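agent> Task received from the user: take the single chain below, predict its 3D structure, and emit structure tokens. No templates, no multimer pairing.
agent> Plan: (1) validate residues, (2) run structure prediction, (3) serialize to tokens, (4) report one or two observations.
agent> Step 1 OK, no nonstandard residues flagged.
tool_call: predict_structure(input=
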Amino acid sequence: MASRLTAITPFGAPATTLLRAAGISVALALLAAASAHAQTPASAAPKSAATNAEAPDAERFFQSIVKVRARAVPNARSSATLGEEREGTGVVIGEDGLIVTVGYLIVEADEVSLVDQKGRVLPARVVAYDHPTGLGVVRAIVPLAARPLPLGESGKLADFEPVMIVNHAGADDVTLARVVSTRPFTGSWEYLLEQAIFTTPPTLNWSGAALVNKELQLVGIGSLIVRAASAGEGTLPGNMFVPIDALKPILADLVRTGRRAGPARPWLGVAADEVQGRLMVSRVSPEGPGDEAGIKVGDIILGVGGESVRTQAEFYRKLWGRGAAGTDIPLRLLQGVDVKELAVHSIDRVDYFRPKTTY
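)
tool_result: status=success, residues=359
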């Protein structure tokens, strides 16, 4: 099977040349060795000292990348948008089998399992889901033959810096990319990242994928594929990654209690898109706070309290600024031709999900 290591990049040069030019010779050697190992029978593998020196490093690197499989609880509220069966990538970040992935894979998970690079299926459990970052943490129940991938500093990534995107397929599906933008990102599902990482070219296996810098450190977790990764004119398609720096200050709390410290943000269960300078409701979570308050698809959100909003970022900041989950949120809406004032009793988003099955 051909590896993407020799693919032609959109920057007009072979990927190997791009890596060497960027000073990532160590990463190139590691991945090239792993790629050769994946394509060559063990009996035919070269015996040179260089190969013997490189192969163990490559093997250890890819052992840190696993597949995460999850099955949602019966009648999960998230199944309508995420499906009942989900799979993506996880990255080992702790000696005790601690793994970080993208949170939507494990929302309302009833069962979680891991598949390592040798194809072994191993049981796991959910440790935490953090809605503000969109990250999830799971832990292997049995010992993993994997070393943690060291955490890098995503805040130091520069525009046009070369990176690698690695998913659970291992050496056969490594994407070489560049950082094209680091900027805020908002999603219609009441989600805002103050600093997200955007890369191009896109990879199709982005869910939970590891974004790795030239020092072979984890700097991001794959979240989305986007039409416009770069800002301004001449936009390129690519992927959005949650920066690993967003995990560092909350990781200890996630492991200890299953959630970040402090009060939860208020959540309304209202998805809204920016349309021609207006904020239009595109989805209302069934039986969620917004649904119970009478918000409908097609409504236009005009303001929070006495403050007007026109963008997702304005809406979220004003919403979260009203207090913790459980606060009544005053909204001004345009429903048809009528302007209405509604008080929506917010909740913690986690409380909306159905609990794990117990027997």
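agent> Step 4: summary for the user.
The domain at 270-352 is CATH 2.30.42.10 (Pdz3 Domain).
agent> Done.
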